Amino acid sequence: MKKTIIMLLMSLVAVALAAPVALAEEAAAAATGAVDHSSIYSYVALGCGLGIGLAALGTGIGQGIAANGAVEGISRNPGASGKIMTTMIIGLAMIESLAIYALVVVLIMLFVNPYKIFPV
Amino acid sequence: MKEAPLFIHGLTLGSWHVPAFVVYTWFVMVLLIVMSLAVRGSLKEVPAGLPNLIEAFVGGLKDFTIATMGPHGMDYFALIGTAAFFILVSNLLGIIPGFESPTANINTTGACAIVVVASTHIVGLQKHGIKYIKHFTGPVPWLIWLMFPIEVIGHFARLISLSLRLFGNIRGEDLVVAILFGLVPLLVPSVMFGLAIFTSFVQTFVFVLLTMLYLSGAAEHAH
Predict the structure, then answer these.
(1) Angle at the Cα of B83 (from B129 to B76), degrees rounded to 5?
(2) Residue B44, min C-alpha distance to chain A (Å)
(3) Mean pLDDT of B191-214
(4) What integer best gives the mean pLDDT of chain A?
(5) Quick check: ipTM above 0.85?
(6) E strand or H helix at B216
(7) For testing the chain A interface, which of B103, B109, B159, B165 should be mutated: the one with the most A CBs within 10 Å?
(8) List of chain A residues whose C-beta atoms are within 8 Å of the C-beta of residue B210
(9) Do A103 and A28 touch, CB atoms closer than 8 A?
(10) Phi, psi dihedrals of residue B11, rounded to the nearest 5°
(11) Minimal Cα–Cα distance from A5 to chain B, Å?
(12) Where are the alpha helices (DSSP H) in B129-187?
């Protein structure tokens, strides 16, 4: 069972790495001598999707552990629920900010296009 | 990306081109000043309406400051209160159609973060003089070569994390509403407005809490 999962994941990674090369369309900018960036943008799209997905994965696990601790604390001591909830909200915002850093990097990759200076 | 449908895209004052988010910062400033002047003139025993709301907010902020920083926290209440009001109103302004949050721009949040980090250093120098350098050296003297770069990088990390957290959250909810509006224009974006209001309050709270923690960390005695 474990071997099957590993084989499936490795084939998925191989397909993901080969897909932008195999499926990229030809750009018509070669005639004017402009630089063709289409192959870089397909990798950029792949990177953005993977980046924010992995950030969401880590954030989900971390915030789940934080909420677990908070709920357990409230169940043991319902009188302290105000303080516990305040601390939980602060902890969630701190963990969320790590996903926000990943989001900012993804936004830079998508919209600021720092690859214009690099010829393909 | 298409241009955002704002009321004002930017002013041109002579040879200066003022971008939209600066104009909305001026709008937030005017709003806060007018509100403060209107509330100041009506100090009654039992407030009602807008003065009641403002007093509840300021009272809650004062209790939270004293609970977090101790009774000396009221020395820094001007900075904390200004940051709280400005960031809260700026965050909430972007939800109204036609307006844009000033804090959805890295320049505004960077300015807020720079003010906070600079004020921690100024408070530390004020309270401790040149001995403020002891905050950066760590527990034992033979670790100074290791602790000093780590502390300096940590202070820069505070600057970056404060500004990026606020900017990313507010710009992120802005983008989510815009993209959902492009996909399903009818009722789905209005659900995200609830999340936007919640995020605005939480991000203000986190920024103010971190400010208080940094200020109390700079004002206390070193290890």
Answers:
(1) 35
(2) 31
(3) 91
(4) 81
(5) no
(6) helix B188-219
(7) B165
(8) none
(9) no
(10) -105, 155
(11) 34
(12) 144-183
The answer to whether the CB of A81 falls within 8 A of the CB of A71 is no
Domain ranges of chain A: 60-111
- Closest partner CB to B164 (pick from A90, A101, A111): A101
Q: 0.90 cut: is pTM over it?
A: no
Chain A residue whose CA is closest to B168: A100
Interface contact B209-A96, CB threshold 8 A? no
> What is the CATH architecture of A60-111?
Up-down Bundle (1.20)
> Could you tell me the CA-to-CA distances from A60 to A101, B34, B189, B194, B210 in Å, in that order?
15, 42, 23, 21, 23
Give B-chain residues touching A96 at CB under 8 angstroms. 169
Q: How far is A67 from chain B (nearest CA, A)?
A: 16
Predicted confidence (pLDDT) per residue in A51-68, tens digit: 999 999 999 999 999 999
Q: How confident is the model at residue A27 (pLDDT cuts 50, 70, 90)?
A: very low
Cβ-based neighbour number of residue B72 at 10 Å: 14
Long-range contacts: A11-19, Cβ < 8 Å, 24+?
A: A16/A46, A19/A46
**What phi and psi, each to the nearest 5 degrees, are found at residue B12?**
-125, 100
A57 touches chain B (CB under 8 A): no
Judge: A111–B1 Cβ closer than 8 Å, yes or no.
yes
Alpha-carbon distance values, A2 to A8, A57, A78, B126 (Å): 10, 21, 43, 62
Query: To 5 degrees, how large is the angle CA B3–CA B8–CA B12?
Result: 105
What is Dmax (Cα atoms) for chain A?
74
Tell me the count of A-B CB pairs closer than 8 A.
Answer: 33
Average pLDDT along chain B: 87
> Is residue A25 very low, low, confident or very high in pLDDT (cuts 50, 70, 90)?
very low
**Residue B37 near chain A (CB below 8 Å):** no
